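Subject: Sanity check before I submit

Could someone independently write out the C-alpha cells for this chain? I want to compare against mine line by line before I put it in a report. The sequence has 145 residues.
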Amino acid sequence: MKLHELKAPKGANKAPTRKGRGAGSGNGKTAGYGHKGQKARSGVKKAGFEGGQMPLQRRLPKRGFNNIFATKYVTIKVSDLDKFEAGATVDAAALLEKGIISKTLDGVKVLGNGELTKAVNVKVAAYTASAKEKIEKAGGKAEVI
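---
Independent answer below. Compare away.
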C-alpha cells in the first residue's frame, strides 16, 4: 500500500452543512439561529459580555506588571558544569545533549551555586559575577555569546 492509495473509511468524511440554502437543505430559513435576538444577528456576539453586569475580567483585581520584552534565561549552576570532561566546550547545544537543560528560551545563564573542579570553556549568554570567578579559578574560560 502506498500513501496515494490510502482512503478514509466509509462514513468518516462528512460534507459540511450549508446554512441558509433553502428549506430542502434541512438548514434553511433561520439557519439554526432561531428568531430575532442578539444571537440571530451577524457579528454581535460579544465575548465576556454579561448582560450589563460588570464582566468578570473587570471585577477581578489586577496585580503587578508583566514585562513581555524581558529576556528569559534558563539557569544552571556552576556545579552542573562538573558533568563535562576537562577541556570540553560547554554551550547551549552541549547542555541540551547532556540533559542538564530541556529548552534554551532566550539563552542560558550560569549561577554561582556549587563548586567546579575541572577546567571547561563555557560559551553562554550570561553569568553571575561569582560564577565567572569560579570558572576562571578552575582554569576555564567564560565567554559571553
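---
OP: Matches mine. For the report I'm noting this point. The first strand starts at residue 74 and ends at 77.
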